[in-house]
Structures are given as C-alpha cells and as structure tokens.
C-alpha cells in the first residue's frame, strides 16, 4: 500500500477518533495502519531489520536471560570478546516500529498491546481505592530493549547518595565515585549544553534535553519564587528544579536495543534468540548453573553455558525464574512442589516502587495542550524529514527534586515532582483510565467537568518509600504470571510524606508564575470517596492518596545485593547468586533500595558495571 494512502487513512481515522478514542480502536485499527507505514519507512531509511538466530547452538560461553535494559547491554559488552560465544534469549520480539518514534510515546502504554507483559498487582489493602479491583498495572517491557523500548525515556542517574549508601551497606565498589565511570561509559550527551566533565560523551546511549514551553518556564520560575535553584540532576544530584534529559538520538528513541544490540548484532559470536521463554536455569549436582531450558515455538531446548548464566529478566522476571529453578525461600518452593536447590529467603522479597499521586490537575485558558490525536497529525513531517514535534516527547515533561521531610541528608531529595503538559483529562477519559487501571465511572465522576479543557498535571512522587512488597509464584507453571504485591502505602511514613508532597505541589501551583502568568486554576473538586472529610485537611489528603496514588513503574529490589550478614540478600557485590556458582543477576532487582527517580539509567549502569566484573573475572581466571 502506498505511503500517501496510509497517511490519508490515518488522518481520516484521527478525525473519527477525536472525542471518542477507544482502546479497541487504537489496537485493532490505528496501530496496524501505523506500523505498516512506519515499518515501510524505517526499512527504506535505515537497516531496521537485524539478523536473529532461530536455531541456537548446543553450548555457549555465556547465556543472558532477558534482552531488556540490562540484558542487551551485557550481551553487547561480553560479545566484544571475539573468543566468547554469547546467547541472548528474550521472551518478546523486536520493538514495533512506533516505539522508535519519541512523540508517539503514549501508544506504548495502551492496555492489550503486546509490548509489555500485561501484569497487574494483586489487590492492595492500603491503596488504589479508585482502581479496578484495587489493583494497578505493572508495565514491564516484553521485547528486545525491554522497558527502555517503551518507557518515558527520562534519563535520571539518581542521587550520588543512593550509591554511597549501597556501598555503606557492605556492597564494595558501588559507591558513586565507583559507578560514575559506568554511567559515563553508557552515555552520549549529544547537545552542546552538556559540557560538564561528569557527563558521558561518545557512549552508545544518546541523551538530549527535552523541549521547553510556557509550562516549563512557569515551573522553573515558580521554583525560584519558592527559593529553589535550577540544577542538573545528572551532575551530583541535589535539591532543585532540573531540565529533563531523554534517551533520544537524531529524533529516534535510544533504547538499549537500538544503542547496544543493533551495532553488536553483526558479530558472529553473538546469537540473539527472541520470542523464546526460558523455563528454568539448569543447575547440576555441584550447584553450578550449567545452562537453561527454553521454549521457542513448539520446541523445548536445553542449551549449555560453559562459563555463566546471567539472569536479566527484571524485578519481576528474575526472582520468578530463580524460584522456578529452585532458588528462593524454601517453604515457598516446597509449597509449589519445586525441589529446593538453594534456600535463599530474600528472592522475591524487598520489592520497592516509587509511589506517585495521580490526578492533581490545573486548567489554564486556551485550547488543549497535547493529546494522542494531536501527535499523530505530525506523522507525515516526521516520516519525510525526521523533523517536527515527533522527534522528541512532544510534551513538556519536567521534574523538581525537593525535600519535604526531616529524615536523611539535607541534600537528599525525598519527593520527585513531575509536571506533564499531557493532563489526566487530555483525551476526555477515553484512554487514560485504562492506561493506569483506574475505575472509569469514578474517573468520570471526578474529572468530567474539565474534559476538553486545556490542562496540566503535577505528580508528587515518593522516591524512598518504606513500604516493602513481594514477588511470589502463583504456581510452578512458568507460563503463569507471578503474584506482584508492592504493598503500597502499608507503612504510615509513606502516606505522611506524600501529604507533604501534595502541600508542596499546591504551593508551587499557587505561585505567581502559575497564577498570574498562566492563569492556572487547580481542579479543587472534592474526591467523592473522601467527601466526608474536611477538604484540604491532612485526613482529606490521606484519603485522596489512598485512592489515587499508584506505581511509577520503578520496580526494584527483589534480588537484593547485600553481604552475607543480611538475611534477605540474594546476590553479593559481584552480583553472584547465593548458594549457586556461575550464576548472576544483573538488572534493577539487585538494587538494595530504589534509586532517587527513574530507574532506567541506573539499570544500564548496573549492566555496564556487571559486564566489566564478568570480563575481569574470566580474563584473570586461569
């Protein structure tokens, strides 16, 4: 089909969609048309397709399980040693073409799309009151590049204090001074403004600054009016308001698939097997990992690893695979009739996730600022010239890092305040509730009065929650999703901190920068579920939080890195799994506690560091 014909069809479809977008329409009509056009253009303009293996060899030196943010990096780095044979196994396929377009970001989060695992949490006892079944979506990428292929592309290292604390817990070599070279090794800050000596240049991962508009300018001015400086969160962290930096290069998403795997895929010693599920890590009588059992299509294969198996399946997938392989809490494994190879109580424990408060919305005079249908209007310009709004996030997304509590170091933020020009109500309730798992009727009751109005959101997010959850097996069947229980807001500290975060957010929204210059008005309708409480009181906001706060998809901690003195530790400082040799975990699950802010950049850093650790071990081992 000719490109112009497809563009015309999409344009007409957009006109039909305006005001009545549905999940089914996007999935079954829009996405197939869009993919046909993008794939046609991508194939013509770049080497979009790469070579994949369909028949893996019987043995490799290294097998990496999971081709996501971490696994793609490890596979690419280990395959730099020409004498090492490396197999990367990924459950999903190559990223669909729309995931490469930064301005089409919202399409990645449509429920039912095959790009993520489709997980939801178990019902939450203390939170998610306005979500369907009191459960929230857990979006985890299921494709090459993993979540780096679908996420919001925010590149945030975290605070230096995060990593110094990791080291202080007994994890030698993970202090900020030690991990900084691995951040820099990954990065290529491509804008001329990025000249600081602590910024990486020339690495695989393209990083650019996001767009600036009237909301961003008001955000920074409002911060100044409250006494906060402008900072760069990726240079020594700190407290203040920071411009956002995104993993984008030349108008295209810079995922670990694009940045690491594509350049490495031509190496004959790297085999990439996608659409294949690892069912179990094979462990011999000496408690050594010797390979994996995987399913590819109708075939179940056993593939050997002569040096190591590296599990990089993420904060949900990695503990699940360890437990299916007999590594985990003994009582839990025996309950599911799984032979206990190593009784490691910490596997699947210590689940953490930053918690953000959805729904804090301001209206401003004018027309709607941004929506999925607006973004698609710029498609032709992007395809023909690689120019226009779709070359970046096509929204104003910016963060402040503030301290509202009394605990911890004075320069360590406890709230990440996120502003988005794509408001909760941008699509008049058509897709937003489904993306987050919100109850549609409750959403409509609260927000319908501002449907169609120009609006923006600010979301205070608690970056160091004290609540801890679990990932546990539902059954011994590898095809069954695990039970994901983040145990949101189970610790009273988290609710108290988010109340302070809301108060700070409202104070920022009440600065002259927002009130006088933008004419911003807070949507101060009482949340119906909290109508019995005094509006604006601490108890009201506690109620609001327990109904509206949810995940920010920063899952971490379920295969905790810790010294042997910690009973919930799973891996040591070299990321080796307790009780089993030749087996490591490399992804966000090893974080002792979640970093300050978005987790993609720290996960890539972990993978860069792990590749160096593995390389050093095997090049010095006789």
Write the SSE topology.
Blueprint: H1 3-17, H2 23-45, E1 59-65, H3 71-78, E2 86-89, E3 119-120, E4 137-138, H4 160-168, H5 176-186, E5 187-189, E6 205-209, H6 214-225, E7 230-231, E8 240-242, E9 245-246, E10 248-249, E11 252-253, H7 256-264, E12 270-273, E13 276-283, E14 289-296, E15 299-311, H8 314-324, E16 327-328, H9 330-335, E17 342-343, E18 355-357, E19 361-363, H10 372-377, H11 379-385, E20 397-402, E21 415-420, H12 432-436, H13 440-447, E22 455-462, E23 470-472, E24 483-485, H14 492-509, H15 512-518, E25 521-522, H16 538-548, E26 549-551, E27 583-585, H17 600-620
Question: If you had to describe this structure to a student in words, what would you say it looks like?
Answer:
With 622 residues, the protein is of the alpha/beta class. The protein is built from 17 helices and 27 strands. Strand 14 and strand 15 (299-311) form a beta hairpin. Helix 1 runs antiparallel to helix 2 and helix 14 (492-509) packs across helix 16. The chain is globular, with a radius of gyration of 23 Å. It starts with a helix and ends with a helix. Mean pLDDT is 91; it is low at 15-19.
């Amino acid at each position: 089909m000719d490109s112009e014909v497809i563009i015309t069809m999409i344009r007409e479809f957009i006109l039909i969609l305006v005001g009545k977008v549905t999940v089914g329409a996007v999935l079954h009509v829009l996405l197939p048309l869009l993919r046909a056009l993008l794939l046609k253009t991508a194939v013509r303009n770049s080497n979009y397709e790469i070579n994949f293996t369909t028949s893996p060899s019987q043995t490799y030196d290294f097998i990496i399980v999971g081709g996501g943010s971490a696994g793609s990096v490890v596979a690419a780095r280990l395959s730099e040693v020409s004498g090492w044979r490396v197999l990367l196994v990924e459950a999903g396929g190559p990223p669909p073409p729309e995931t490469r377009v930064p301005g089409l970001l919202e399409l990645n989060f449509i429920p039912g799309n095959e790009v993520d695992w489709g997980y939801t949490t178990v019902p939450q006892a203390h939170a998610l009151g306005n979500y369907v079944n009191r459960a929230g979506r857990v979006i985890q990428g299921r494709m090459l590049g993993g979540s780096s292929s679908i996420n919001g592309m925010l590149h945030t290292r975290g605070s230096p204090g995060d990593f110094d604390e990791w080291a202080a817990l007994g994890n030698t070599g993970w202090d900020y001074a030690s991990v900084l070279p691995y951040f820099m090794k990954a990065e290529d800050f491509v804008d001329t403004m990025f000249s600081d000596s602590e910024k990486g240049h020339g690495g695989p991962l393209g990083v650019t600054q996001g767009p600036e508009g009237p909301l961003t300018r008001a955000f920074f001015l409002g911060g100044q009016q409250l006494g906060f400086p402008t900072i760069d969160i990726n240079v020594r962290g700190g407290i203040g308001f920071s411009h956002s930096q995104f993993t984008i290069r030349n108008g295209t998403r810079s995922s670990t698939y694009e940045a690491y795997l594509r350049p490495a895929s031509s190496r004959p010693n790297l085999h990439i097997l996608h659409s294949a599920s690892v069912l179990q890590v094979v462990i011999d009588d000496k408690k050594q990992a010797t390979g994996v059992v995987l399913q590819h299509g109708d075939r179940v294969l056993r593939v050997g690893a002569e040096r190591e198996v590296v599990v990089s399946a993420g904060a949900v997938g990695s503990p699940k695979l360890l437990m299916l392989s007999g590594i985990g809490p003994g009582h839990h494994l025996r309950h599911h009739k799984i032979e206990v190879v190593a009784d490691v109580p910490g596997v699947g424990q210590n689940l953490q996730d930053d918690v953000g408060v959805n729904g804090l919305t301001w209206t401003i005079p004018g027309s709607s600022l941004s929506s999925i249908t607006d973004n698609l209007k710029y498609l032709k310009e992007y395809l023909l010239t690689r120019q226009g709004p779709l070359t970046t996030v096509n929204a104003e997304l910016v963060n402040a890092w503030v301290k509202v509590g009394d605990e911890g170091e004075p320069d360590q933020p406890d709230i990440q305040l996120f502003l988005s020009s794509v408001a909760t109500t941008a699509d008049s309730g058509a897709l937003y509730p489904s993306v987050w798992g919100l109850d549609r009727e409750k959403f409509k009751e609260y927000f319908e009065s501002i449907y169609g109005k120009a609006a923006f959101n600010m979301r205070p997010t608690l970056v160091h929650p004290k609540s801890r959850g679990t990932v546990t097996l539902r059954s011994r069947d590898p095809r069954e999703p695990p039970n994901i229980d983040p145990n949101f807001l189970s610790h009273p500290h988290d609710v108290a901190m988010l109340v302070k975060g809301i108060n700070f957010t409202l104070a920022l929204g009440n600065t002259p920068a927002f009130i006088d210059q933008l004419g911003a008005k807070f949507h101060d309708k009482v949340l119906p579920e909290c109508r019995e409480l005094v509006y604006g009181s601490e108890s009201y906001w506690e109620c609001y939080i327990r109904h509206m706060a949810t995940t920010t998809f920063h899952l971490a901690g379920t295969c905790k890195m810790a010294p042997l003195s910690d009973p919930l530790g799973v891996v040591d400082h070299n990321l080796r799994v307790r009780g089993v040799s030749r087996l490591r975990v490399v992804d966000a699950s090893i974080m002792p506690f979640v970093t300050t802010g978005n987790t993609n950049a720290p996960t890539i850093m972990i993978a860069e560091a792990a590749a160096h650790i593995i390389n050093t071990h095997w090049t010095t081992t006789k």
